[in-house]
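Worked example

This section walks through a single chain of length 156. The input is the sequence exactly as stored; nothing has been trimmed or padded.
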Amino acid sequence: MAGGAFVASGGGRHHEGEVTAFVLVTCFVAAMGGLLFGYDLGITGGVTSMEPFLIKLFPYVYKQMKDESDTESQYCKFDNQLLTLFTSSLYLAALVASFFASITTRLLGRKPSMFLGGLFFLLGALINGFAINVAMLIIGRLLLGFRVGYCNQVIK
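Given that input, the structure is written out below as tokens.
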């Protein structure tokens, strides 16, 4: 049947599994794990464009942003490698952490692995919350990234 979404014939395989509440909750939790990346991307994009944040931690970028005339392109308004490192450090740490998640999950189990990831998140959030310089921000983002990649791999 071309273009059909359902096949009426009985030639397909029949699976005994059911869609239970446990299956639905598991799918929901796995989907939320994927949303961590998008949520962080949105928050980081908003924070890096806030003037108080730029004035305190990236004064060169703020000065460069204010000195640009309105006739120039808005494409690369924040052209700074340190600001780029701040943004991308989470994703680099997530990539590295995802390689180690399967090993520790196999050794410790899922619940202790998720707890360990939560501890990394707590530590990273505290460091970012009390950051007074760019190095603290990047270290905090690395810990947050470790949690995102690690737990995203553990839940799948």
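What to look for: The two ends are 34 Å apart (CA to CA).
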